[in-house]
Amino acid sequence: MAAVTADQTTQAKAQGTVQATAGGPDGADGAQLAAFDAAVAADERIEPRDWMPDAYRASLVRQMAQHAHSEIIGMQPEANWISRAPSLRRKAILMAKVQDEAGHGLYLYSAAETLGTSREELLDKLHAGRQRYSSIFNYPTLTWADVGAIGWLVDGAAITNQVPLCRCSYGPYARAMVRICKEESFHQRQGYELLLALGRGTPAQRDMAQDAVNRWWWPSLMMFGPPDDASAHSEQSMIWKIKRHSNDELRQRFVDICVPQAEALGLTLPDPDLWWNEERGHHDFGSIDWTEFQEVLKGNGPCNEQRLTQRRRAHEEGAWVRDAAAAYAVKHHAEKHTTPTPTAEATA
Ligand SMILES: [Fe+2]
Ligand SMILES: [Fe+2]
């Protein structure tokens, strides 16, 4: 495959060798696979109309759906605090952030639709518990400081994971991630700034910030997924350049970023085994409780049921909005395509 150059790929695309086979069988045509492999090897983008292996398509749908679902389920724990934000400024910031997350879901469902799936189908699978969302959102937001800890740690972990996705081999996903990452970095900063304000506040506010960080630290590390040797999809995803770095590599990067930030906040990270390893040039950290991770994944986290019930209810209650939007689209389409008859014009 390495012998096929990027120029040959472009040529193959121009000659129509690379074809759209949405939903079709894996191409028996070796040239199609060679062109795909060469495009990936040359860091070119695979676009919706290009031929792609069925397994690549399925892997992207799985990952993008899980990502989209996480964006919209992730609105719930924070929305919990909109009505109780301590000031108008904080309320406006939080509302904007939660709205951003809805937008991220929208970009990602739209990007997934370019692979031949529909938003309706993906939402049905989420509601039926057949597709996942990030386990981090199955933890409760107990105090106002949790809004800060989520912004700093959860959005921070999301950015660490997602910046490399801006170079993902699938074009629509990569492009959606560029905008998402810009907004995520605003989310991370608002969380950090919120914790900074609490850290400089009264002893009770400082304790509240520390307590939130204590509860969110370990689940944030779990956001990078299982260790590399136990990760089912990682290796193939890296070959396809959907993923650029391993779970453990990204987790290490996140820990190294957070340690000096925690110091600047005047907060501690709840890990007695966290220390700078001069030899490695990285921080060593304690072992993660993967049993807890598996339990939350299985549906036994503190809020799994609440999150899905709320999501299903929101979907049902929003049915009239979808119906109205669809009726409006039909009416608008009909108006656009109806030209008045000469008689009607004459009469007028
Ligand atoms: Fe987001
Ligand atoms: Fe975010």
Q: Report the portion of residues in β strands.
A: under 5%
Indicate the overall shape.
globular
Mean pLDDT: 89
Q: Summarize the biggest pleated sheet.
A: 2 strands, antiparallel
Q: What topology, given as strand order, has the largest sheet?
A: 1-2
Bound molecules: fe (ii) ion
Tally of DSSP β-strands:
2
pLDDT under 50 segments (min length 5)? 1-25, 344-348
CA gyration radius, whole angstroms: 24 Å
Distance between the termini: 68 Å
Structural class, from helix and strand content?
A: mainly alpha
Helix content: 55-70%
What is the helix tally?
15
Order of helices and strands: HHHHHHHHHHHEEHHHH
Structure, described:
With 348 residues, the chain is mainly alpha-helical. Helices cover 64% and strands 2% of the residues. The chain has 15 helices and two strands. It has a two-stranded antiparallel sheet. A hairpin with a 4-residue loop joins strand 1 (275-277) and strand 2. The structure holds fe (ii) ion (2 copies). Residues 101, 155, 184, 187 line the site of one fe (ii) ion. The site of one fe (ii) ion (FE2) has 4 residues, from helix 8.
